[in-house]
Amino acid sequence: MTAPLSPTDGRLLAGLAASAVRARLSGVRLTATIPPSGPLHADGASFVTLELAGTLRGCVGTLEPVRPLHRDVVHNAVRAMQDPRVPPVTAADWPALDVKVSVLDRPAALPATTRQALLAALVPQVHGLILTDGTRRATFLPSVWSKLPSPEQFVDALLRKGGWREWPPDMRALGYGSTEYEDRSPRRPL
């Protein structure tokens, strides 16, 4: 992101994600109005998280900017509806579905040649984390700290998510921040 988002831009992004989900569930074309220029048109990276009564229903995103932020949010919202880790989102879910958009800062390398070095470098509640060995990659958003509050829990769960049983010698760690915006339920049924 080249320019910071205003609270209005953030609300607009969360509403845009919710509108994309609603359009897909109802089989209609997405119609949304965004400002003709500004930070929503700059390339940006985002994650969209869908939750039903606090239970994950989908979370999909991009770690590096690849398209204008408003398009990235719509793309990730639609993909989150079909997250392969959980059942697909349905029209029955819509009235109680919470939609969250996380806008990511650019990842930066963390001094982490070992698990212990990474644990010492992590800042709970601040760092999102990407682990990669050049073949596989896994990430947790900063919001995951609310479920895994200690650095040990956070790193161990991310290692499991990435399919690593132990710390590989070629592991790289990158940290990033994010800003979260929400469009919360309740909603009218479709």
TrEMBL record:
Q: State the superkingdom.
A: Bacteria
| Gene3D superfamilies associated with the record | Hypothetical protein ph0010, domain 1, Hypothetical protein ph0010, domain 2
- Write out the transmembrane intervals: none
What Pfam families is this protein classified in? Answer: AMMECR1
Q: Enumerate the SUPFAM superfamilies for this protein.
A: AMMECR1-like
What PROSITE patterns does UniProt report for this protein, alphabetically? AMMECR1
- Report the InterPro entries cross-referenced here: AMMECR1, AMMECR1_dom_sf, AMMECR1_domain, AMMECR1_N, AmmeMemoSam_A
Residue span(s) of domain AMMECR1: 8-190
Q: Which PANTHER family match?
A: AMME SYNDROME CANDIDATE GENE 1 PROTEIN, AMMECR1 HOMOLOG
Protein name, per record:
AmmeMemoRadiSam system protein A
Q: Which organism is it from?
A: Dactylosporangium aurantiacum
Lineage, uppermost ranks: Bacteria, Bacillati, Actinomycetota, Actinomycetes, Micromonosporales
